[in-house]
Specification:
alpha+beta, Nucleoside Triphosphate Pyrophosphohydrolase, 2 domains, four-stranded mixed sheet, four-stranded antiparallel sheet, 13 strands, 39% strand
């Protein structure tokens, strides 16, 4: 790991103004002291974080399609959702909940492949990305969230890559899931060829 003095880059908060406090996130405007002894402002979004699950059954990835109002488009994503206040210390439980609500499946095991900040320039949202194993279809799964309308599809790796090229898959967590899936396939093929 590269070592450096990160303290010299810190931006101490001099004051904070709350702009908005909603059910999913809050927005603040901070006045900060910059490393060159000047002042600057930072508009920040605080969010509990989220989870995403990339379920693969019979060499097909389960995706959920939904309309995303923020950019007025219907897209396909891996099952995902926000961390509830009581799940902040247990993102795996949230991932299992979202998997069940959105696909009707549960998993025996979840392996975290990554956790990442999607937009670190202004948001604290951290997403935990899991690959499940031991998937089982439930007879009576939890219901979807109120007001959530989803189209569940299963796609091959090649189909998922085409969906990325065509913009039907355009979010980071799903693109990352597809790339990880492809890497795992390449590793497996490499093991078979050796």
């Amino acid at each position: 790991m590269r070592e450096f003095d990160e303290k010299k880059f810190e931006e101490p908060t001099l004051s904070r103004e709350q702009i908005f406090h909603g059910q999913i996130f809050q927005v603040v405007k901070d006045l900060v002291s910059l490393p060159d002894d000047t002042m600057g402002t930072r508009e920040l979004v605080f969010h509990n974080g989220g989870v995403a699950v990339a379920p693969i059954i019979d060499d097909k990835l389960i995706l959920v399609g939904q309309y995303r109002k923020a950019f007025e488009k219907f897209i396909f994503e891996v099952p995902a959702g926000k961390l509830e206040d009581n799940e902040l210390d247990n993102p795996k439980a949230a991932a299992l909940r979202e998997l069940e609500e959105e696909t009707g499946y549960t998993a025996e095991q979840l392996v975290e492949i990554s956790s990442f900040y999607g937009t670190p320039g202004f948001s604290s949202e951290k997403t935990y990305l899991y690959f499940p194993s031991g998937l089982t279809k439930l007879e009576n799964p939890r219901p979807k969230d109120e007001g959530e309308f989803l189209e569940v599809v299963e796609v091959t790796l090649d189909e998922a890559k085409i969906m990325i090229e065509e913009g039907q898959i355009c979010d980071a967590k799903t693109i990352m899931s597809v790339w990880y899936w492809e890497l795992q396939n390449l590793k497996t093929q490499g093991d078979l060829d050796a």
